[in-house]
Design a protein that fits this description.
- With 358 residues, the chain is α+β, with helices and mostly antiparallel strands.
- It contains 9 helices and 20 strands.
- Strands 11-12-13-10-4-14 form a 6-stranded mixed β-sheet, with helices on both faces.
């Protein structure tokens, strides 16, 4: 999602669809869902509201697969790269589902460990069926909405309407009631800011949204979600992860628990680990306001050394930024250029995240 989300034929709508339209949201099709790209103030204002105050995103397009039963943890241990034994009930964990043959990342996932043998697995929008085929379980996506409240003042503002949710710590998971409505709240997000994600029954989503926005928390759409995650250098499936891309190439080897004797794709990934990756994901900062874009070539001199996966203008930094797969020999500080329609944007390889996570 280097620019606007990819356009598909819309199939699903959020329980908050009518609310978004009443707010004048610009709606786009993304991952089979019709979702808000931005509201009347626009993406940059929404982005800066998240960095400086608090926003709420409707992320109901993300999947939820409930996995439960006496062997639920073992099924997930085999299917996913990370090690659930590092956490416990009441915690969340980031992990990958790999292709068994070439170790491509089929999806990157957050697992909410809700209770003893109850897990809510949260895939990306278009990958829910693929993930459920690998891990089993029951899809509950259409039974709930998910609201992501993010920003440095997110918890302070949320505390005025849902105080228990505001107390949920980073990567913690809690079952909580809001005005008699059962919710699951996780201290997770996709912006680099503090906050929580709240899974609320679909029938009560409008009331909770109204309470949250009534507390001064600004609605934000997928446009700001994309620029925020890019500033935080967080990967997007289909860009930094996907077919032909492994966890190691994406610089996410920390989600791979090599201590586990077996997980899907382990053999292929271990082979790549042993021979070394042929490309690595790096950050690029470009000069000026013109943004680099996905699929643009990265050059050192006249030699092509990589390709941009996501690029945009950074509202916080005031210049272009990009994630790109480049040859692994390029050091931080290397001067590069990005070819945007025949015009070269000067830049350099930089450390990530571009904007420090908080």
């Amino acid at each position: 999602m280097g620019g606007p989300p990819d356009l598909d034929d819309p199939v699903e709508t959020s329980p908050l669809d009518a609310v978004h339209r009443s707010l004048g949201a610009k709606m786009v099709a993304f991952g089979g869902w019709d979702m808000p790209l931005s509201y009347e103030t626009g993406t940059i204002d929404e982005h800066l509201a998240c960095r400086n105050d608090a926003v709420v995103f409707d992320v109901s397009h993300l999947g939820t697969v409930r996995v439960e039963g006496d062997d639920a943890d073992q099924r997930l241990q085999w299917a996913l790269t990370n090690d659930l034994s590092k956490i416990a009930p009441g915690r969340a964990q980031y992990t990958h589902l790999l292709d068994e043959d070439d170790a491509s990342v089929l999806d990157d996932i957050i697992v909410w460990w809700v209770d003893d043998q109850i897990f809510d697995v949260m895939p990306n929008a278009s990958n829910t069926d693929r993930v459920r085929a690998a891990i089993g379980g029951t899809e509950t996506t259409r039974d709930r909405a998910v609201l992501a409240v993010q920003g440095p003042l997110a918890k302070e503002r949320l505390a005025t309407v849902f105080p228990l949710a505001a107390e949920v710590g980073r990567f913690r998971v809690c079952r909580l009631d809001w005005e008699g409505v059962h919710c699951v709240v996780a201290g997770t997000g996709y912006t680099g800011e503090a906050g929580v994600e709240i899974s609320v029954p679909a029938a009560s989503a409008g009331d909770l949204w109204a309470a949250i926005t009534g507390a001064g928390i600004v609605p934000a759409g997928l446009g700001a979600r994309d620029t925020l995650r890019l500033e935080a250098a967080l990967p997007l499936h289909g860009h930094e992860l996907g077919a032909g891309i492994t966890s190691l190439q994406a610089g996410l080897g920390w989600v791979v628990a090599w201590s586990k004797e077996e997980f899907r794709g382990r053999e292929a990934l271990a082979a790549e680990r042993d021979r070394g990756v042929s490309r690595i994901l790096r950050g690029i900062a470009t000069d000026g306001r013109r943004p680099p874009r996905a699929d643009c070539a990265v050059l050192v001199g006249d030699d092509t050394v990589g390709v941009v996966t996501s690029g945009n203008f950074s509202p916080v930094l005031g210049h272009g930024i990009a994630l790109a797969f480049v040859t692994p020999d390029l050091a931080i500080g290397t001067v590069v250029s990005v070819d945007v329609r025949g015009s070269r944007l000067p830049g350099r390889i930089v450390d990530t995240p571009f904007v420090a996570k908080r």
